[in-house]
Amino acid sequence: MPCTKYNGKLFMRNPSLKRVTGFLDTPEKVRQVQSDLENSTENAFKRIDREKRDCLAHARDYILDGYTN
Hints:
The chain is of the alpha+beta class and 69 residues long. It has helices spanning 27-39, 46-64; strands spanning 3-6, 9-14, 19-23. Helix 1 packs antiparallel against helix 2. It is globular, with a radius of gyration of 12 Å.
């Protein structure tokens, strides 16, 4: 799964590179990922976009379910 929690923060990994590609710990960052997805049209990014969509759904739930609490 491309999303992982680390020290209470949700972050997105690129499994093929085995590294963190971005923390999704604020609504602004979630919106940025969503914007990147909407602006991406290249076929080469379809798999990565699917991973980002999965992670974005988790990030939305995480933030909406009480990130600020």
